Amino acid sequence: MVQAVIEIGSTGIRLLVAQSSGKGKQQKFTILDRSDNPVNLGRDVFTTGTISRETLVASLKILERYKEQLASYDIPDEETTVIATSAVREAANRDPFVDRVKVRTGWSVKVLDGIDENRLMYIAVADRLKDESASVRQSNSIILDITGGATEMMVMEKGRIVGAHSIRLGTIIVEQMLHSMMGTMDDARRFIGEYIRNTKKTLSSEMNLKKIQHFIVLGKGMQKIAGIIGTSVSSFLWEMERTEFDSFADKVQNYTPEEIIEQFKLTYPEAVSFQVSLVAYKLFLSLTNVKKIIVADTTTQMGLLLSRNINTNEEIIEDFNQQIAAGASSLLKKYQGDQQHAEYVKNASLKIYDALEDELGLDRHARTLLEVSAILHDVGMFIRADDHNIHGKYIVNNSEIFGLNRDDKSLVATIVGYHKGTRQPMNEDDVKLLPRSSRMIVLKLTAILRLADAMDRNHRQSLKEFRISKTADTFTIRTKGHHNLSMEKLVLEQKGSLFENVFGYKIVLL
Hints:
alpha/beta, globular, 53% helix, 510 residues, five-stranded mixed beta sheet, seven-stranded mixed beta sheet
């Protein structure tokens, strides 16, 4: 099957055409065609806040050319995905821009959140590293991609995500700042350095950065450098010695834009961004003690193509869901949550979910939302025990959780907000305003979470083993061993009404 992905980025509009072969773990993509046309979306948006008419016209012309180009491959519109990143995302006139693209080309543009870009970046990099040794795949790592409009970063501990960030530090943003103040590259270095120092506190709360073993980077500029001073590891990976990169980056800072254009075959806008990005990569590197840099030849576009394979590959699904859970656990740790209680409630919630799976009418992703909600249900205790559910809702809504887009995160926040007490979510205005499908997710998952939370009321994990059985009208939880269940039964009477209303079962605890 031949598929196409078009990315409307801050510095240009890029087309990728690939042919897939095989299925599941054996699926591979062969690149058939690439196109990259510069456009001033980022410079418009990060200067004026909007996409100018001239840039809109230029963008539409590029997209119409791509439409003609794809016609030669006989690719139907449904096999062409169009995504937009930070520039369109931040534009005040993004909706008219997206509408004009739809009218002129027939393509619907999906505007990615920063965390969506993180997700696709992880998928793309994980695919490139899949044949590498466990020492790389399961190490403490930073994955970094500095683009025109943002810096996408993931922090990995033993191969598990402990932090995912979309930082508003892009090369075009820095360039515009320098232009407005008539600054030099020394000013850029100070600006980026201050920004990174402010970010360091957040990153250090997730992991000791001095324990980072691998520094993995993406980007066209870094690939060019790797081709000059790096060593090829595989078809899509290079290694560079850090000392050599530092020296190279320092040397390039003394080049004029014209010299960069000539030596690296870049356009003028790319040449200026190239210098800025090297400053940023070097300063991020200074947070760590790594000796080598791994450069991956991959893109968000490739991540999107690979993401379509997730739904058919059990191994990929399991790994991805584990990464989402790891990100949620890291957030709980950051807010000093009770990790043992969260682990118990998570496992109990999933056990209850699986017992009801044949009648839930929810997809697999809903189970992941329940898992994240269970891990984070008490995260608001960091602020105050009273109304911790409301504080937890705020924390979730204002945090980045790897693998969850804005809508997913909003659902998790709502579930966290209603896990405590006896209020019926279906009577609340914020739930009433949700689409019916989302309302049902909130109701069903909140009901399950309340039940699981009630089983560990004392936060001592007393009921470690239990079995679940169902009859026509009862949902029986049978514990192993001898326990005084009076406390749990009392709490279940208080918190079980939503479960009974939603699923129609009487809860019996034995």
